[in-house]
Structures are given as structure tokens and as C-alpha cells.
């Protein structure tokens, strides 16, 4: 524990590596490119970790800023660059001070690195910029892992089948891959068998759609009340 801030142990890098492996496998199952899922700039903005450090950590290298104050200044500068006003301008020191409930002198000292931040300072600035707790203070591997876990939750939501049944079918059964393999079959007879199998799968999702229509009272559904 340093100045009231939790300091993660060496296991943080192993946790990050496990998250990267899990998300890479999930991306493969969803047919997503690793470049899109592990977009360095997006992960940097989501975590506060500098882009070059994100790259190094994703590659399994030890990296990151160990000093709390230096890390705080990196994250705060990133916030001021990426969380801007509607007109595209940065928030001024006075605006940050007013929004965080501190004096302009306090805000200026924190921004310029002349004063070491406290938990209260960090909480107030994080609330002002609308970022999660720990954004300004978490060690780089921990911060990046948090951003990756949020990415994983979004991907799992896509994988859970909350969308259109036909889209779910395409994901669950890898239809595009099946179609490619079917094209390699030697005869039309073999390809017709694959088509027949796909037709059966498509038929299997139709009752779900019909049921949804009936429940919503859409045309074709029985939704009448006797009078």
C-alpha cells in the first residue's frame, strides 16, 4: 500500500496474459480480427495507459510507469487530450478545478506535477471527466486488464445470443466456414447434402420468430380477446 493506493503484485502480468488469450479465442469464435479487438489507441483511451505501453503489455513484455505521481500525470494528460469540451477544446485548469470542487491553485499544482495527488483528488477528477474509479492510479497492467475485461463483456454479450436468431445461427455454426469447405466437395450431390443440412438449421429458428410475432401481437400472431 502506497499513499492509500493499492499496489498489485507480480501476478498482474499473468492475469493480463490470461485475459488476452481468452479474448483472442473469443474474437476467433466471433470471426473478429484481433486488430479490431485489440485496437491499441482505443485501449489506451479506455485504460489511460500510453499506447506504446499497451503494445508492449499485449506482447507480453514488462512495461509501465511504476511511480504513482508520474502515472497520474500521464493519465490526466490523456484525459485532457481525449475528453474534451463539445467545441473540441481542452478543459481549462479553472474548469477542472470548479468541476472537481477544488481551488484553481490546487488543480494547477496537480496538473503541473507540483503536488502529489491524494485519493480525494483522484476521485474528484475522475468524476469530473466521467471515468471509472482507479483510472488515474491503477498500475498499467491492471488498468489495461480492466479495459480488456470490459471488452470481453461486450463480446460475451454478442456471443450470448441476444440478437437475431439467424445471426446467432451464423455465429454458432460457422456458416461462412462451412460454405467454404462445401465448395471443396467433389460432387453436386455432396454439396446438396450440405445445403439440405443448412436448410434444416434455418427452419429451426423460424418458430422462435413466429413466437416473437405472436407475443407482440404482430400480424399472423393470435392475440385476440373474446368479448
From TrEMBL:
Signal peptide extent: none
InterPro entries: Cro/C1-type_HTH, Lambda_DNA-bd_dom_sf
PROSITE patterns for the chain: HTH_CROC1 (PS50943)
Residue ranges constituting the HTH cro/C1-type domain according to the UniProt record: 89-136
GO MF annotation list: DNA binding
Protein name: Helix-turn-helix domain-containing protein
Membrane-crossing residue ranges in chain numbering: none
Annotated stretches, region: Disordered: 206-227
Pfam family, one: HTH_3
Domain of life: Bacteria
Amino acid at each position: 500500500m502506497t499513499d492509500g493506493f493499492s499496489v498489485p503484485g507480480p501476478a498482474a502480468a499473468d492475469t493480463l496474459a490470461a485475459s488476452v488469450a481468452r479474448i483472442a479465442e473469443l474474437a476467433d469464435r466471433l470471426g473478429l480480427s484481433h486488430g479490431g479487438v485489440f485496437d491499441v489507441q482505443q485501449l489506451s483511451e479506455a485504460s489511460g495507459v500510453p499506447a506504446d505501453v499497451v503494445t508492449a503489455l499485449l506482447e507480453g513484455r514488462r512495461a509501465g510507469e511504476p511511480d504513482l505521481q508520474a502515472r497520474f500525470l500521464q493519465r490526466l494528460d490523456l484525459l485532457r487530450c481525449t475528453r474534451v469540451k463539445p467545441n473540441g477544446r481542452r478543459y481549462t485548469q479553472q474548469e477542472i478545478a470548479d468541476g472537481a470542487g477544488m481551488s484553481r491553485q490546487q488543480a494547477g499544482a496537480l496538473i503541473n506535477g507540483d503536488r502529489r495527488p491524494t485519493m480525494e483528488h483522484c476521485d474528484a477528477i475522475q468524476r469530473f471527466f466521467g471515468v471509472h474509479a482507479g483510472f488515474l492510479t491503477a498500475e498499467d497492467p491492471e488498468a489495461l486488464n480492466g479495459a480488456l475485461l470490459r471488452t470481453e463483456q461486450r463480446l460475451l454479450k454478442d456471443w450470448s445470443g441476444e440478437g437475431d436468431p439467424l445471426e446467432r445461427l451464423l455465429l454458432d455454426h460457422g456458416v461462412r466456414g462451412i460454405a467454404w469447405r462445401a465448395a471443396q466437395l467433389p460432387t453436386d450431390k455432396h454439396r446438396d447434402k450440405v445445403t439440405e443440412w443448412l436448410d434444416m438449421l434455418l427452419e429451426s429458428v423460424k418458430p422462435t420468430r413466429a413466437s416473437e410475432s405472436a407475443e407482440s401481437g404482430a400480424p399472423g400472431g393470435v392475440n385476440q380477446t373474446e368479448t
